[in-house]
Amino acid sequence: MRKSAGATWIAWILVAVYYFYQYALRAAPGVMMPQLSEALDLSAMGVASLVGVFYYGYSPFSLVAGGAIDRMGAKAVIPAGALITGAGALLFGTGSLPAANLGRFLQGAGGVFALVGAVYIASKNFPASQAATLIGATQMFGMAGGAAGQFAVGPLIAGGLPWKNFWIGAGVAGLVMAAALIALLPKEEATRRGGGMKATAAALGTVFRNPQSILCGLIGGLLFIPTTILDMTWGVRFLQEGHGFDYGEAVMRSAMVPVGWIIGCPLLGMLSDRIGRRKPVIIGGALVLLVCLVWILYGRPDAIPPYIVGLVAGLASGAAMLPYTVIKEANPPELGGTATGVVSFLIFTFSALLGPAFGWILHHLSGGGQIGLAHYQTTFQPLLYGVGAAIALTFVLKETGSAVGAPSEMAKAV
Questions:
Q1: Number of structural domains found in the chain
Q2: Which domain holds residue 208?
Q3: CATH code of the domain containing 32
Q4: 199 with 192: CB under 8 angstroms?
Q5: What is the rounded CA–CA span in Å between residue 116 and residue 108?
Q6: Sign of the dihedral defined by the CA atoms of residues 180, 184, 190, 193, in that order
Q7: Over the stretch 376-405, which tens digit does the pLDDT of each residue have?
Q8: 128-182 pLDDT tens trace
């Protein structure tokens, strides 16, 4: 894809917009849980489980996306992901529970091609010194979509837009996105041809055998969970049932977390590139996130001006994107797509496995009845331990920033 600088920027921006789109779909069910519960005859836990099916597609297909893009190139692979995502949205909007489950799975399976593709394009065509900045900017697009999935969709649903109409419109938008990607992504020479599944398995083995890769996945996964599960799945209901906010105010407060990500992802990426180090930024962001989570669960909402805690929590949790940079710097450069796929797989396996677990705990503690603040506090207290564990693991992680040596040299040394 080494065309003109203009073509490269267009390609990256287009795939980043695709990432915005899939993140909006990821977040949207969180503001329509009562409607989904009534239409599909599901309990709150049942709706949370349905929403979490997204990660059952996203996690395993991370490995497929990374290997496929490395072998066949972005133009041959990314549009197919957008097509699958759009089809998943259409199925979700049918109002049938089996179709909704399949649709949610396809949204995850297709959506992962957006992040892996954007990171692949950024790392293949821009200097290594800009890696964390561009990966952070990619996530900025994603979290802007997450914010839109709450800020924009919430008022539409509250204003009377049928939830089915939203998903049908989103599905059509996905098909249009796929057509635009086919038309506008430039052709490229794939970096790895031949060898079939054996070569793909060998690439995955190289990345998985690297202890740095596993550490990146663990750290990123533990830092992502507060966003993917507490905020995007349960955030609105937590604020309504735990603190008594009305629907509109709960949506606004919950949406401040992805708004914080919009700021924090590129800002922390730029800071990491500027100082040439990854670990101090991850640790600093995680510490601030830990303090915010303690306040969200146990503090008084009226003691701090509205929206501040959610905004700061989102800004700090932008540090969760830095493991995407580290894993690429700690592995051979020709395996960039595979490395991104592996870290996405590891990170979102946490969400796929733990999302239903948190829902079950919440249901068990409440006995299937009214859920209160104490139930939410007990259920989500383990998130605090998870962020603490991420901080501890970051001290074990090897520094890969430019201040300690060329990334390619470090990858060879591992």
A1: 1
A2: 5-413
A3: 1.20.1250.20
A4: yes
A5: 13
A6: positive
A7: 999 999 999 999 999 999 999 999 988 886
A8: 667 677 777 887 888 788 778 877 888 888 888 999 999 999 999 999 999 999 9
